[in-house]
Amino acid sequence: MSPAEIREEIIDILGDIAPDENLDDLVDEKNFREQLELDSMDFLDIVMELRKRHRVQIPEEDYGNLASMHTTVTYLEPKMREIVKA
Amino acid sequence: MYDTIIIGAGMSGLAAGIRLAHFDQRVCILERHYTIGGLNSFYRMGGRDYDVGLHAMTNFARQGDKRGPLAKLIRQLRFRWEDFKLAEQIGSSIRFPGVSLDFGNDIELLEAEIAEHFPHCVDGFQKLSASLLDYDDLDGNNPNFNRSSREILKELIPDPLLCEMLLCPLMWYGNARENDMDFGQFCIMFRACYLEGFGRPFKGVRMILKNLVRKFRGLGGELKLRSGVSRIHVDGDRAVGIVLDDGTELEAKRILSSAGTVETMRMCDDITTPLVAKAGQLSFIESISILDRQPQDFGFNRTIVFYNDSEQFHWRRPEQGLCDARTGVICSPNNYQYDADEGMLPDGIIRITTLADYDRWTALDETKYRAEKVAQYELSVESSVRFMPDFRRYIIDTDVFTPKTIRRFTWHDNGAVYGAPDKQLDGTTHLKNVYLCGTDQGFVGIVGAIVSGISMANRHCLVES
Q1: Tens digits of per-residue pLDDT, B106-158?
Q2: Cys-Cys with B110: which of B21, B103, B231, B415 at CB 3.0–4.6 Å?
C-alpha cells in the first residue's frame, strides 16, 4: 500500500473504533489524543485491527509510533508496502 | 483446540467473548445453566417477564457523551447507543428517618439537597468530589485505592449522618466488603451512581443479553449452555484441559473464568483446599410485587429508594435471623422516562431487596423455606412502606428469590452478588493461562461486569506476551 492508502486504512479503522468522532479535520502532525477522545484501549484496538485486517504485527515496544497519523503512516509504510489494498 | 474458553455466560463472559471473537479467536463460552445472564439474568413466570438483578444500569450516559464506562463499552463492543437504548431515571432518593436526599443523573440535584439539609457540609462535599480517583487510577495501583472510605468521609464531611446517607446507595450498588468500603470502590460507585446516574432499557436486561449473544454468535463465537465446567486439568503452571459435568473434554490455549476466584480454584485439580473464607459474604432476598396500577397512580415516582431506619447504616451479613430489614432498596422499573413510542410497562412493579444470610436460608427444609419466603417478604414490605406509600392493597402477584436461588443459578459461593471483598484486580491466577473476570476481578453491576470482561480479554487474551 502507498502512504495515502495506509492513511485511508487508518481513517477507516478509526471510524470503526470511534464512530462518533469527526475525522474530516484530522491534522496529521498532531497527536491523535489531542484531537480525538481516544484512550489506551482504543490504541490497542488500532493495533488489533491492523493485525486482523492485514496480519501486520506491532510489538508492544513500538506502540509509541502510533501517536499521530504522520508517525503511524511512517511506521507502517515498510510493514505494509507489499500488502495490496482490498 | 480453542484459542480461549470462557467460563460463564453472564455479562462479563459475553463481553469478553465478543472482544475475542471480533479479533478472530476461536472462542467457546461454557455455561452451566440453561440460560444466559448469570447474576443479571431474566425469566418468565405466570405470563410475565422478570429481570433477576436489574434495578438500574449505572453509569448512565446520553447519546453523544464520549466519556465514561458506558460510552467505552459501546465502542469496544462495536455497538451503537441505540442497541442499549437506555431510558433515564425519573429520580431516586436516600431516605433515613427524618431526612431524605433526592438525586438524579446530574450531580446538581444532590448538591442542592445537601445545601438544603446539610448546609455545613457543602464545602466538604465539594472537596470529596474533587478528591475522587480518576478512572485511570482505578486499577488498584493507586495507594489510595485501599484506604477506608469511612475514614476519608469523616475527614471531609462534618456530619456523620450525611456520611452514612452517602455511603448507603454506594454500598448497596455495590460493596462486597462488610462495614467499610475501599476508597477505590467508593470512587467507582460515586461516579456510577451520583455523577453518571441510572438508566434502564424498556425491555429490561433481556434486551442487553440478547444483543450480546447475537453479536457474539454473529462473530462466530460458540456458546454452550447446560455445559458446566467440572475440572480444569493442570500440568505444572498451566491449564491443559477442561472437563465438563458430563465428562466431555475440551482444550484451549487459555481460560477466562467469570465463575469467581474460589469457585475457579475449586475446579483446578492442583488445588486441594481453596480458601473458601475469601469468598463474598453478602447476599440478598429480592421480592418482585406486581401491582394492578402504575406506582405513580398512588403517588410513588421514585426510581430507586435506598432506605435505612436509623442514623447508622449497617452493611453486613445478618448477624442473626434470615434477613436484616433495617435497610433496603426499593425499585420501581416503571419510574423511568421511557419514550412515548415505548409507552409504559404493562404492570406496576415494586422490587425490594433485603440483606440475607446464605447459610440460614439453605439450612431450611423445603416446607420451612417456602413459608419463610412469604414471611420475610411480608417483613421486608412492612419495613419498606415506612419510606414509600403503602402499595400492599394493589398487589396481584409476587415472586421472591433468596440466596439459595442465586447460588442455584449462578454457582457463586454463598449466593454472593458482589463477589469477594478482596478483588483480583489484575485478573491473574496461580496458572499462567487462566484468568478471572466478573465480580471477583473488580467491577460489579451490569456496566462494571461488561467492562471487566472487556478489560481482561484485552489485557490477557488479545495481547501476545
Answers
A1: 999 999 999 999 999 999 999 999 999 887 766 667 888 899 999 999 999 99
A2: B103
Whether the pLDDT of residue B464 is over 70: the answer is no
Q: Give B5→chain A minimum CA distance, Å.
A: 20
Residue B96 lies in a domain: no
Contact yes or no for B163/B154 (Cβ under 8 A): yes
B454 neighbourhood in chain A, CB within 8 Å? 41
Strand B304-308 to B434-436 pairing: unpaired
With CB atoms and an 8 Å threshold, state whether B72 touches A18.
no
- A37 with B66: CB under 8 angstroms? yes
As for the ipTM of the complex, it is 0.92
B132 DSSP assignment: P
Measured between CA atoms, the residue of chain A closest to residue B135 is A39
Q: List CB contacts of B444: < 8 A, sequence separation 6 or more.
A: B173, B174, B176, B417, B418, B419
**Cβ separation of B75 and A18 shorter than 8 Å?**
yes
Q: How far are the Cα atoms of B18, B125, B417 from residue B81, in angstroms, in the given order?
A: 17, 32, 27
- Domain identity same for B311 and B406: yes
Q: Where are the domains of chain A?
A: 3-80
CB contact (8 A) between residue A41 and residue B64: no
User: Model confidence over B211-270: pLDDT tens digits?
Assistant: 999 999 999 999 999 999 999 999 999 999 999 999 999 999 999 999 999 999 999 999
Query: Per the domain annotation, does B92 fall within a domain?
Result: no
Q: Do B426 and B445 sit in the same domain of this protein?
A: yes
Contact A17 B75 (CB under 8 A): yes
A-B Cβ pairs (cutoff 8 Å, strict):
28
Q: Which cell is B395 given?
A: 398487589
Last residue of a domain, one of B166, B196, B226: B196
Residues of B in contact with A45 (CB under 8 A): 76
For residues B27-54, give the mean pLDDT: 90
B273 part of a folded domain: yes
* Residue B89 counted as domain residue: no
What pTM, to 2 d.p., does this model score? 0.94
B310 and B384 in a single domain? The answer is yes
Per CATH, the number for A3-80 is 1.10.1200.10
Please report the pLDDT score of residue B71 as a whole number.
92
What residues of A are in contact with residue B64 (Cβ under 8 Å)? 20
Query: Three-state DSSP class for B92?
Result: strand
Q: What is the number of alpha carbons within 13 Å of residue B94 lying toward its C-beta? A: 26
Partner residues linked to B305 by β-bridges: B93, B330
